Amino acid sequence: MCRTDGMWKNAQENRQERSEQALQSSGEWRAECRRLRRSDRDAIPDQLGPPEVFNDARGCAAERRRHGHAVPDAETGPDSRTVTSRLRMSCAGWRKVPTAEEFHRAVHDPEGTPRETAILLTWYHEADVAEQLDARIEGAYSWRELARALHRVGLTRGEAARRLNRFARR
Description:
The chain is mainly α. Helix content is 58%, strand content 0%. The chain starts with a helix and ends in a 5-residue tail after the last helix.
């Protein structure tokens, strides 16, 4: 095992530990939401809610039509047009620009590689709300799948978490 493999393993373990500490029960998280709303009705926690508070439905063709989102079926799911576009823009300087299929694996892989973690990190910080919505409607993920992946790699705090929390069932 090379030195970087050991450092990666330690970093991964630390991230998982922080994520487990941050992962609250859905009841505790909802209570925190209610507490925040007593002082500000629009308040949203900056701690990503546990996956259970997010809807597990992925977008489908009927939902895309209902929202006027005209994307061919060939550019949905693991081949999401929105994910492809965002990754091409945000990862242009990478030696090998990640694909929507790699992003899909990163969201669904219970272990994850350093590259998959970097892809999730990029999506977490770079995708705006419209892109997050479009990717979900295109079937790239459900809100619950994305929240679970972000908890797995320790991306649970900050403005990006607050944006995702808008889609939680409070």
